[in-house]
Amino acid sequence: MAEQHPSAPLRARTARSRPGVDHVVEHHSEQFTVVGNHLAQHAELSLTAIGLATHMQSLPDGAPVGIKALAARFPEGETRIASALRELEAHGYLSRTKTRLPSGRIVTRTTSYNKPKSVCPVVRPVVVPVPDPEPAAPSEPDLDRHRTAAELLSGLRARDPRLLLTERDVRRLAPAAAAWLERGVAPADVQQTLASGLPPEPLRHPTAFLAHRLTALLPPPLPDTSEAPRPNPLQTCEGCDRAFRAAQPGQCRDCRSPGVAAA
Q1: pLDDT per residue over 209-235, tens digit each?
Q2: pLDDT of 190 strictly over 90
Q3: CA dihedral (70, 72, 74, 79) positive or negative
Q4: Can you give the residue range of the structural domain that contains 52?
Q5: Which residue, of 17, 24, 132, 177, is most buried by count of CB atoms within 10 Å of its CB?
Q6: Is residue 18 part of a domain?
Q7: Rounded to the nearest 5°, which phi and psi values hold at 189?
Q8: Number of domains in the chain
Q9: What is the CATH number of the domain that holds 56?
Q10: What b-and-e string marks burial along 159-169, b requiring 16 or more CB atoms within 10 Å of the CB?
């Protein structure tokens, strides 16, 4: 006889010493979906994400599960559904990959897991390589500037724990952060730009996220004013007492003309 593992009492209790839920459990012989308690009682997923995962596990293969299709089916709206999908993806219940069809069209393939990927041994997590930031570092290395860049990157975790970087990642991102300092941005302002407006969901790859911000939000260089010519000082004309600009005192242009001198 098969061993049974009920997750709730088989019949409701008639009296309780404390308030709480009672279960009335009936056997399903068709049209049912088995959902693990690791999902139904997940401590970090929202109720929207848990309900959405349960719905997706009940669907047949090939059923549409895009954001617009789900928003048309449920009242939560595209924003909440998109957030719930990201939760499920972050906790291993969902994966989405882009595939190019023979026609050239790119579609998103969605895979739903009835166990999170960290529990299911047959599923291998996709390793996303962290791209190196585009070369935007100073042309001549400045040790003090790079040291300051490394310190501001290491200090990002104080602004948000999700921005915790390894020592190796700090070394990789330091040249891109040093480019901001070379362009006149204060270290505190660099941190503010990198750590502001973060998404609410967990950051799966904080290094790649910061590498993108360091290159995409890099401000332009300050204008070079060192070669700008300075105007001549104001002088008082010795002939008509008018003000004019010249390197040395003397007469204005009108008084230096032959007609004015003859008069």
Answers
A1: 899 999 888 988 877 666 667 788 878
A2: yes
A3: positive
A4: 37-112
A5: 177
A6: no
A7: -70, -35
A8: 2
A9: 1.10.10
A10: eeebbebeeeb
